[in-house]
Amino acid sequence: MTVLVVTGTGTEIGKTVVTAALAAAALAAGRSVAVLKPAQTGLLPGERGDADEVARLAGPVTAAELARFPDPLAPATAARRAGAPPVGPEDVAEAAAKLATEHDLVLVEGAGGLLVRFDDRGNTLAEAARLLDAPLLVVVPAALGALNATALTAEAARARGLELTGTLIGGWPEQPGLAERCNTEDLAEAAGAPLLGAVPWGAGSLSPEAFRAAAPKWLAPELGGRWDAARFRESWAAG
Fold first, then answer.
1. Is residue 209 a known part of a binding site?
2. Average model confidence (pLDDT) across the chain
3. Of the four listed, 23, 114, 174, 204, which is most buried by Cβ atoms within 10 Å?
């Protein structure tokens, strides 16, 4: 089975749009795709969640969500405030494994960063990834501060025996500054894993048709695209 866990160095850094790009590229290659959002926070029943947004942008994927809590907080806290049972790593692993029997690719999109608590036992997305024996793709920001957050996330992942496929910039600015341009070189060293793409800032506002056509240009071949790290760095060479 093929399961990829999409996590990040924090919240609001583009994990959902990156997940949509991964799904779009896989669909374009003729693969069937499922997207699993273990815990959706900050939304009420009936509102569009992250998995729904992936389906809107990428196309015909199976969108699954295990639980939804109204407060925009970490899943464990949001579940406690809602008086609802939390999502445990076993729940995530079971759901993803079932989806993997029916799809070529399962994308599991976490909430916030890798070590955000899912339940009051202290379990996180990392425990679910370990149960699944699934690799991580870490979505990172491009700006100043990205290197420290990336290094910490990578260190936490490896301390738990997890495989880090690489990192991907979740929002590349239209006019990058010196820090962003230098980070195209330094992120790989900070993560100890390759930089595997860069999604332009605001890509989620594209029409679905434009998004699907462009998605492979944002992803490295390892992720089903044609993004070239060396060419990208050259085009934004730091002066």
1. no
2. 95
3. 23
**Both tokens of residue 170?**
């979740």
Q: Any binding-site annotation on 15?
A: yes
Please give the full DSSP string across the chain, using - where no structure is assigned: --EEEEEESSSSSSHHHHHHHHHHHHHHTT--EEEEEEEEES--TTS--HHHHHHHHH-S-EEEEEEEESSSS-HHHHHHHHT-PPPPHHHHHHHHHHHHTT-SEEEEE-SSSTT--SSTT---HHHHHHHHT--EEEEE--STTHHHHHHHHHHHHHHTT--EEEEEEEEE-SS--HHHHHHHHHHHHHHTS-EEEEEETTGGGS-HHHHHHHHHHHB-GGGTS---HHHHHHHT---
> Looking at the DSSP assignment, which residues form a beta bridge with residue 166?
137
Kind of pairing between the strands at 33-41 and 3-8: unpaired
HSE toward the beta carbon, residue 48, CA cutoff 13 A: 7
pLDDT single digits (tens) 16-44? 999 999 999 999 999 999 999 999 999 98
Residue 101 token pair: 């029997």
Instruction: List the catalytic residue out of 20, 21, 37, 223.
Output: 37
- 16 a known binding residue? yes
pLDDT the model gives residue 236: 81
Q: Which residues contact 35 (CB under 8 A, 6 or more apart)?
A: 19, 23, 51, 54, 55, 61, 62, 63, 64, 106, 107, 109
Catalytic status, residue 98: no
Is 201 annotated in a binding site? The answer is yes
